[in-house]
Amino acid sequence: MSGKFVVGYDGSAAGRRALDFALDRAETQGGSVVLAHVLEWSPYSFLTPMELEERHKRRGEELERAETAIMAPIRDKVAERGVPVETVIKYGHIAEKLCEITKSVGGTQMVVGRDGTGALASRVFGSVAGTLVQIAPVPCTIVP
């Protein structure tokens, strides 16, 4: 049985554990991995046209930095294991974008890491893992 594992990856130790989990399953099943990095971006904009232009410029710089600092190095390491890998970088609400990416690439399972910190913040604002449990379009594994 093959599958396409969509991994929420942010370069953290938790993200790396999620990737290792997905790679082990992909190797065993003859599947592939989609590394998805989502940059949070507030949809609220009470900005002047000049501020919007600056914001658009920063967005481009952040996408480039995410590609060179986070995705390119890990893509090379994953390729060394012989598992087919694709990368996707998007802006938006992390859990919602991970679901959109999963649907668009035909993902069969989602994998994210959890670091267990930020308990207060997650109680107030919710966590990515908690949201995915409720809205994921495919089975979702949360790696501790």
Description:
This protein is an alpha/beta fold and 144 residues long. The protein is 53% helix and 20% strand. It has a 5-stranded parallel β-sheet with strand order 3-2-1-4-5, with helices on both faces. It starts with a strand and ends with a strand.
Quick one: overall form? globular
Low-confidence sequence ranges: none
Q: N-to-C terminal Cα separation, in Å?
A: 25 Å
The helix/strand series, from N terminus to C terminus, equals EHEHEHEHHE
Taking the sheet with the most strands, its summary is: 5 strands, parallel
Number of distinct beta strands:
5
Order of strands in the sheet with most strands: 3-2-1-4-5
Percent helix, as a range, is 40-55%
Name the quaternary structure: single chain
Strand share of the residues?
15-25%
Secondary-structure-derived class: alpha/beta
Total number of helices: 5
Mean pLDDT: 88
Report Rg: 16 Å
Short structural summary:
This protein has helices at residues 13-29, 49-80, 94-105, 119-125, 128-135; strands at residues 4-8, 32-39, 85-91, 109-113, 140-143. The chain is α/β, with parallel strands linked by helices.
Would you spell out the secondary-structure blueprint of this structure?
Blueprint: E1 4-8, H1 13-29, E2 32-39, H2 49-80, E3 85-91, H3 94-105, E4 109-113, H4 119-125, H5 128-135, E5 140-143
Parallel strand pairs: 1-2, 1-4, 2-3, 4-5
